[in-house]
Amino acid sequence: MKSMMKAHKKVLVAAVTASGYLILFLFFPLVLSAQQSPQEWLEVIDRNLNPPQYEAYRKLINIEPDGSKKEFVLFSLKQGREKVAALFLSPASEKGRSTLRVGDNMWLYIPNVGRAIRITSLQSVTGGIFNNSDILRVDYQAEYSAQSIKKTNKKGPSGDLLLQLNLKAKSGFVAYDRLEMMIDPRIKLPVKIRAIAASGLLIKTIYFKKVTDFGGGIKRPAVVETDSPLNKGYKSIMIFAKIKSRKFASEVFTTDYMSRIEGLR
Amino acid sequence: MGLLLGMLVLVFDPAWTFAQDDDLYSFDVEEFTKKTWEWKGTVSASGTLKSFNTDSVLYSVKFPDDEPVLSNELNLELSLDSRWDWGWSRFFLIGDANVQKSSIESISPQDTLLREGYWQIFQFEPHSIDIGKRLLRWGKGYAFNPVAFLERAKNPEDPEASREGLWMVQEIWIFEGFSLFSNSSVNLVYLPIREDLNDDYQVLPSNENIWGLKLYALIADSDFDLYYIHKSEQKVANWGVDFATNITSNFEVHGEYAVNGADELTNQILLGLRYLTENDLTWIIEGYHNSAGLEEDESKRLFNSIQSSSAFIAKQALSIIQQSRTLNQNYGYIKASIKEPFNWLYFTPSVSLLANLDDSSQNMNLQCVYVPDTNWMFELSWQYLNGDKATQYGENPVKDKTVLEVTYSF
Question: Global pTM?
Fold first, then answer.
């Protein structure tokens, strides 16, 4: 009798354990999503898009409605959440220019002008759809607060249903009042961002494409594309290459250093 | 029909579409590997048509023999910017070569000019030292820079024109800011004046040692600079401050204040703003005051005296007027430029107005810039000067000027 009881108990324990594993297996992705708050999702996205400190090469292409293109090549550096610098390597007319961003502050250094001039986030040093805040992108969490997250019925590249993370600008200095970020929950990267003005007007849509393994644990979209209903027929593309973690001295992200960024290549 | 089918197959063939995308997304980064010696250059050709103000008192001083009504000028300029980088130091050479042909013989062409040529040692970062001919460009203003103590005066009629540097030694120390400052730096400058060194810079004794100090800090999202200049032979000190900050994501304000401590203390003030509207119209507005400038009555007397004085004194007065850039005390500058209006691709028109607020004379400039390709630029500008008798722009020998310039960068 005792041995029967023991056997029943064993079967019961096994059944409970198995059903526990089954429940965990079936609902694990949901449990994981539910565990993460909107702010935690934003931190994950920032980390997956940009290592804390890195250097990279970028090509910016502005495509006009008539199909003609203008290309720019930049050497970029980033440190912490809100320090970014970029040096123009091409075309010849722009070579030697550099831009710097520290939080909400942005400067442009033109060799002929010879000093750093304050610029604003809504201007664009390259023209096209990307403005300065897109080109000198700091972590999203430096500019935006994550307000809510919801599941959508659209599938991402991994086949999972996309999540929509809603972000709100922390201050009036920020280029866009709200962002709707569509996230693929499996690869934990954005697929699309809709940038919306305070009036509710859609300013632009940013698409993240070609997830690439750059080595050193950096796996992120190699192509960022944008278009805007305000500039129909125009398109801007940013292509990333040679992204690698690198630590910089603090003086690199200062206006006096802007003319010397070339020395870091 | 076959051709149409072929085209349809091409358009809807996913392999072809992806290949097109791959081509668009291709990026050969090795092409941009850093080299020890790198250089870039521009070639520009321009044609200028000037119409002279024959009623101006300065006209007869400038052209005592012949009396041209118009002049045509052709200008060809080659600019080269070269850098050598050895990892611990760099050497920079920036210069122009210029050929000019004018319908007026009295205008002589300048052949070559070394704008900057200096050696930069950065082995001991965050310290760096520049030795050689260097253009400092201090200040935050666009058309005026009261704190630009150690450089040749900027021309508010053409604020973006290239200028020539001065021979100096500069030490820059960038350091981690105190808790209040995000970042900070110290610049120390030594600028010697000798018989054959910087001798064409300002009216100074042939032997002078000028020491400059600039302190920079980013405080609460605003740039602040403090300047101190000491001329050791004359025992004169100048000082100044400037600031620049963004009020919103499309609105910047800046200002400068300078005190020149000669026998009589004089000061200069600049306040300005940049504003970008939703339709890509950029406004630059600046107001400038210089207490050392002439009052309206004084400048009127100066112009009237030229008519009655000898040719020698009149030429001296002309030289003072032309070199001083600003003659009176109060000026206003306004510039509006719009990017690609009416969807005219690559086209940026702008209009600027420089006004002498004391004598109410104006200097207007209309400009159209067309950049069809990243390395080609076409620029058409028309400058018109207007004012009453005995006013700065009303007495300018040039009445209006049209310039067409083509620039190629390589």
Answer: 0.82
